[in-house]
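Hi C.,

You asked whether I'd gotten around to modeling the 87-residue construct. I have! Everything is below, sequence then structure, no commentary in between.
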Amino acid sequence: MHAHQEFDAQIRTILAQHGRLAVDANALDADADLYQAGMSSHASVNVMLALESAFDLEFPDELLKRSVFGSIASIREAVTSIGVGQT
């Protein structure tokens, strides 16, 4: 499994547990709009906290915006931009 597939799998698990999506997180395209899939702003905060715990990171203030949590791909990009998964 490629690194970005592993990240996506972890992100999907977190979304399934915390995102309160109206659809199965595993069925979503990586670029699908998570808010259109049923995630509320409140749920996105829970997703962010779960991501911080799972990846042992803290999102910097500049990444605390709705667009960062708008899709699996944008979450992956933000997590990797912080340096997670890079050696």
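If it helps when you're writing up: The first helix runs from residue 3 to 18.

Thanks,
B.
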